[in-house]
Amino acid sequence: MSSYWLDDEPPAFPKHRHSGRVDVAIVGAGVTGCACALTLADAGLRVRVHEAREVAGGASGRNGGFALRGAAAPYDVARAELGREGAASLWRLTESALERLAELAGDAFRQTGSLRLAADPEEERSLRAEYEALREDGFPVEWRSELGGRLADRFQGAIFHPPDGSIHPARWVRRLAVRAADAGAEMREYDPVSAVEELDADQVVLATDGYTHGLLEPLDRAVTPTRGQVIVTEPLAEEYFACPHYARNGYDYWQQTEDLRLVLGGFRDSALAEESTAEEGTTPGIQARLEAFAGELIGRAPRITHRWSGIFGVTEDLLPLAGQVPGREGLWVACGYSGHGNVLGLACGDLVASAILDRPAQELRLFDPGRFLEAGVGGVLGVPRDV
Asked: Which of 66, 202, 262, 338 could make an SS bond with 72 (beta carbons 3.0 to 4.6 A apart)?
């Protein structure tokens, strides 16, 4: 079965064809590549986007549809690793990206907030620590001790993040691509790139997240392709979950669509080695767990209409790589979102484009590719979420 998000009829893109060499070639037409293309084309640059499949055909059309502020690590952990100002800068960046997403996405985005749930006492302590850190630094957050409905007696409290939301990711990224094409970017679908050297451009941006393998050897070592499996049910009789939910440190995640389907992903931790792969596909073990959990959440076994997997890129410190590749003038990367690409991908696409335009933002330093593409690595911030 294919991704539910890709069922919509794809839009027709304005057919721009740049002759000869372009200013910037972008590999990947997911959220990062399309965001980067829009910013560069709006500035008047000649931009060509190469996509191996269709726009949003990779992780941007194959995730759980969560639009969350922050990164893969909880805020308190990020604050311990990046410092108070570094973590706050990262969270403010993603909140600004959420606002931009809401402006551009139209009805593909719903600002519902999100619930991070505690599945056991240890996770409750973790949530309490994040909640207190967010409050101390002035970020909107709510503690939910009483959970009703289908969550009652299953979880031990939750954090509610008001700025977050639900997104139809493929619809959103396709709209972003149309905007980029309207601004003059050339969108080349079904045009795979096998080597950076074959691109006729002054600057090249690799925006393929977990699908980067083979284009740059140091990047292959720094970004681990990781598979996330998802199921979608038939429309349910009522709305049980009004916003995105995630538990067990992000290993389980679910929400309902506007037509009340349950979108559910996770259980990657039941087969971590097997799921560290760039091979798209579903496995009987994880699919069985997802189906069983869906039944537990709604009280009956629903009919499954869609199954799929998507590949996302994970870095050792769970922060993206975004910026110029050390020692490679004119070569840029933006990838490695560790399961948080819907919002961070937009932010990093814009950041890299601004740097190419000689308008580098301070936040880009948080994602310096040199921390992995040169000697030395950073500390580990936690576990990647798959949303």
From this structure: 338
